[in-house]
User: Which sequence fits this backbone?
């Protein structure tokens, strides 16, 4: 019997040993959960060890003014499991999941380059899409000087 998104989230709530700061199921096949940035590697480990097969379809990111929100988009058993981890600006660092999820290698490089979030422990931190002469500290998808969307909306 296949799991629904709600059942998958219930399993995370009951079996995952780390902190979950929010979750919701938008449909039977669309699940969202949130963990502190420092827990992303442990959540990736849990996902990879709990369900099979698991596919990381991409990692996306958005600068919301005060934080960089990273969204790890996994697919397992027909369910889209989206894991959110927000990195405070000024911290700008999150641990790599590449040793657990090899497919993350290119997505993490892109996040590092385009949003300026250091991917700690990444095995290949070279630039991915920007030219080598691109100015250090200039991140194309970063919204510098923006406090939050509500104040500037």
Assistant:
């Amino acid at each position: 019997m296949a799991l629904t998104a709600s059942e998958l989230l219930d399993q995370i709530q009951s079996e995952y040993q780390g902190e979950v700061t929010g979750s919701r199921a938008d449909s039977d096949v669309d699940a969202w959960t949130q963990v502190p940035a420092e827990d992303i590697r442990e959540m990736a480990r849990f996902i990879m060890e709990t369900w099979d097969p698991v596919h990381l379809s991409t990692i996306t990111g958005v600068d919301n003014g005060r934080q960089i929100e990273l969204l790890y988009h996994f697919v397992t058993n027909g369910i889209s499991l989206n894991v959110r981890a927000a990195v405070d600006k000024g911290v700008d660092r999150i641990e790599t999941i590449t040793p657990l999820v090899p497919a993350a290698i290119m997505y993490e490089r892109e996040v590092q380059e385009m949003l300026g979030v250091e991917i700690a422990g990444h095995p290949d931190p070279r630039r991915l899409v920007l030219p080598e002469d691109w100015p250090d500290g200039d991140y194309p998808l970063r919204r510098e000087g923006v406090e939050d969307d509500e104040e500037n909306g």
About this structure: The chain is about 20% helix and 30% strand. The beta strands are 22-27, 30-34, 54-63, 67-76, 79-88, 93-95, 118-120. The longest helix spans residues 104-115.
